[in-house]
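Section 3.1: Structural characterization of target chains.
Under the original work plan, the team committed to producing a structural model for every single-chain target entering the pipeline before any wet-lab resources were allocated. The record below documents one such target. The sequence was received from the expression subgroup and is listed exactly as submitted; it comprises 443 residues.
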Amino acid sequence: MLKIDKNIERIVNTEEQNLKDIFNKIDEQTLKNSKKVLDSFHKHNLSSNDLYGTNGYGYNDIGRDKIDSIFADIFNAESGLVRNQFISGSHAITVVLQALLRPNDTLLSITGTPYDTLHEVIGIKDNNSSLISYGVNYKEIDLINNDFDYENIKKELNNNIKVIHIQRSRGYSTRESLDIKKIEKVIKLIKNMNKDLLKTLKNASENFNKYPAYSIENIQILSPIRKPIHDIICVGVNYSDHLKEIEGNKLMDKNNSKKPVYFSKRAIEIIGLGDKIKSRFDLDKYLDYEVELAIIIGKKGKDISVKKAKDYIFGYSIFNDISSRTIQKEHSQWYKGKSLDYYSAMGPCIVYKDDIKDIFNLEVKSILNEEVRQSSNTKYMIHDIYNLVSDISKGMTLEAGDIIATGTPGGVGMSFNPPKYMKSGDKIVCYIENIGELINFVE
């Protein structure tokens, strides 16, 4: 027989009494909700016939329409959409594609353009919720004389294809349905090519393992570009909150924000992750931080259109535009106050452009000695990165390796009252979502 301590029994009974009113309210609400559901059942004359399965295409599915209306009633909505099963073949294919594909993956159709019901799903017909709009790449290879184009399929299989779409039936086209033997043949081709690829990867892995590995604590991660080919192209006051906070510092006229503000920054050497900022407090004791998204140009270009700007970008990094504020204010140009040796930091790496899903929606932060100083998002830029690349390149050649620092958000040290600048021994962390952290120490 189970023995329960008398004290525990007494505590349980006491708490049940204390909670009695709460339990009663829950029971009352449950009863009201049940009545609401039953009333809606009666209102829409729901019967057992309405609960049978759908035919898959939505025709004459009276029960499905009733369930939609009932849910709308219960939740006081204008309308409802309730599906506890696949309603069509296109629905099933959509779920599979969305489950398998991620940004930068490629979907390849080797039977030409698929059913029109998949056009919006894939993005062949442009819309904001397609696979293409979420960063998935799409390619298609047409059939030749109602058979697969084997040579072009072989070529495309070497280009990082994630999913291959084969449509056997003709759909609404005039071609014949594909023979099973043809489908079997192309699947064997795909499998054999994948075997060769796996063998190559295995050999590469075995060769890689021959080389020694080092702990990250025992190596120094350098700046991804230590010696830039030109001065760094900088964009001033490109976040609205930063524009507001510097108006009182006489650094610029707020009306100038209609056009991008550019200045250059000399960097004899760009320091990287973990490096020390060799401060010159003897020249200026007001040492400030500025976290910025850095654009790394990938190829030579001039007069680049906004639409083509991405083609000229290699990737992105984090840049700390370290600044001497007194020197900056003493000169009509910002160049001197920005260009002291070791006052440029970038890292921890360059992330390739296609590995960032949405460059226009990234968190941007700076943290000084565990205190968050700047916290914003690239979506708050006044001039976005593609427009900046296009504008800078008008009449001016950009080359591979050029760095564009795209401006800093509000929260810099000089904006506080009193100002909160960096000092010797401080740790400054610059963070940008999907890129990482750039950490430096003030010496």
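The first helix runs from residue 6 to 18.
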